[in-house]
Specification:
4-stranded antiparallel sheet, binds adenosine-5'-triphosphate, nucleotide-binding, ABC_transporter-like_CS
Amino acid sequence: MPPPRRPAADPAPTPETVRLTGVGFGYAERPGVLRDISLILPAGSFHFLTGASGSGKSTLLRLLTLSERPTEGRIALFGEEATAVPARDRPGFRRRMGVIFQDFRLLDHLSVFDNAALPLRLRGVKPAAYGPDVEEMLAWVGLGDRAGDRPTALSGGEKQRLAIARAVMSRPELILADEPTGSVDPAMAERLLKLFQSLNRQGTTVLIASHDEALARRSGARLLRLTDGRLSAAPATAAA
Ligand SMILES: Nc1ncnc2c1ncn2[C@@H]1O[C@H](COP(=O)(O)OP(=O)(O)OP(=O)(O)O)[C@@H](O)[C@H]1O
């Protein structure tokens, strides 16, 4: 006799890495930069955020890194309420992110190697354990022979590649990248896109802010667009 049929179990809901609900934000000198933004980034998703210069892409990333607080609405990160996180609790959220800032934010008193290794050191990983991984990542972004240099000796594109290596080194759950290919040539932009795609395939949630709509479309990621402070899903193909 066959066993009794069980009703199919409900599929487990996809955990959300990011949820914004009705988020608004403005600077004192520039109110209304972001208006009524609602956005869910499911765990393991890959999105490009596009929009004209000044449309608020970096500002939206600053809200997600908890560098700014929304003036309206709510933010949840990794399933936890994060709208008004006190300063002492922000590092706990930030350790789960790899952030690539438009201005790179490298530490000039540390070598290229030590900049790339920083997120692992902060997690208490011993140099003997992370050394080969850091060397491999630096080689991947074309900085294998620059490990002993200081960031001040790097070109703009090299600094950008180091900032990317540092952000992805600790395999964060969420990568937030602000114009990560803005200073590199097209071949390197494609290589870096492959790096983000590969991390995404391994489960990392990725959000890239970029002017480069062509790169965004080639990426296979979902496209979001900011226009006049409002967010919309961009069409999958360029308008004819
Ligand atoms: N710290 C600040 N104080 C006041 N206004 C600001 C500040 N930072 C940004 N803004 C303004 O907010 C708006 C959005 O800026 P933001 O940098 O988020 O745009 P963006 O889409 O990232 O632009 P870009 O593509 O040029 O980097 C702009 O009008 C900008 O001038």
